[in-house]
Specification:
The chain starts with a helix and ends in a 7-residue tail after the last strand. The chain has four helices and eight strands; from the N terminus they run ααββααββββββ. The protein is α+β, with helices and mostly antiparallel strands. The strands form two sheets. A four-stranded antiparallel beta sheet has the order 1-2-4-3, with no helix packed on it. The radius of gyration is 58 Å and the shape is elongated. Strand 3 (182-184) and strand 4 form a beta hairpin. The chain has helices at 2-30, 98-116, 155-163, 168-174; strands spanning 125-134, 141-147, 182-184, 190-192, 203-211, 219-228, 238-249, 252-255.
């Protein structure tokens, strides 16, 4: 009886060892062996290696060095631009306003009067400074007084002044040698014959207006109407009109016809 128990225990021990070996063997089949190939269905996704990026050269610009100062910076003085006045056109060739045309007419009337013997006050004559010039073929002498108007210092400056108001033909006629109204002094300066006889007392109201044509901007006319106050019964009262064309000649505006008014 005791011998049978020992044999049964040995047999049970052998059987348990076989089961353990089977479990170990089945477990070893399920686990993948390192380095062995996995079944095709269980392969992990292939990883494509990233391409090596080429190095791109980068140019580095030098950075300007700024030096900051706590001292106050004083801006340099700049010359202010000169702005022409509204009543003085910067270009004489542009169409003038009516006021500018009448201003030019008043200057032209004054200077034309120096030669017509109406008024010489604009010349600012110095009667204490005079020269005498003998009259050709006569024993008499003509007396000329010094012109103190600043812009009139000689015959040439007088010519330039007149050319800003009249056409060349009018200026040449006014300054022709036969007139003998202005001369250059022997020591310099401009001298004029004092022959002003004043305004005409037989005239009344004066009307001035500027007339522009419908077409074209290069010509206008200053129309002057003067009221006549004749005391002689043979000359009834009335009016007299004058027309002075003011025209663009070259790059400036001048009067192309002028005459002395009463």
């Amino acid at each position: 009886m005791k011998k049978r128990l020992i044999i049964a225990a040995i047999l049970a021990f052998v059987l348990s060892g076989c089961q353990t070996a089977e479990v170990t063997e089945s477990t070893s089949e399920e686990l993948p062996v390192p380095g062995s190939e996995l079944p095709e269905g269980n392969l992990p996704p292939k990883v494509t290696p990233s391409p090596v990026l080429e190095e791109i050269p980068v140019s580095v610009q030098p950075v300007e060095e700024h030096i900051f100062s706590t001292e106050e910076t004083i801006p340099a003085e700049t010359e202010e631009p000169v702005i022409p006045l509204e009543d003085e056109p910067s270009d004489r060739g542009e169409r003038p306003t009516d006021e500018q045309v009448l201003e030019a007419y008043h200057k032209a009337r004054e200077s034309y009067g120096w030669f017509a013997g109406y008024d010489d006050s604009g010349l600012m004559l110095d009667t204490t400074d005079s020269i005498s010039i003998p009259v050709a073929g006569e024993e008499a002498e003509w007396t000329f007084f010094r012109v103190t108007r600043p812009e009139l210092e000689s015959i040439e400056t007088l010519r330039a002044y007149l050319k800003d108001l009249f056409s060349d033909e009018i200026v040449d006629e006014l300054l022709k040698p036969a007139n003998n109204l202005f001369v250059d002094g022997p020591q310099g300066g401009l001298y004029a014959m004092g022959a002003g006889r004043g305004a005409n007392v037989n005239t009344g109201a004066v009307t001035e207006m500027v007339l522009w044509p419908e077409e074209g901007d290069g010509l206008c006319t200053v129309q002057v109407t003067i009221e006549l106050l004749w005391e002689d019964p043979d000359f009834p009262m009335g009016v007299r009109s004058y027309s002075f064309p003011y025209q663009k000649v070259g790059d400036k505006w001048v009067f192309t016809h002028f005459e002395a008014i009463m």
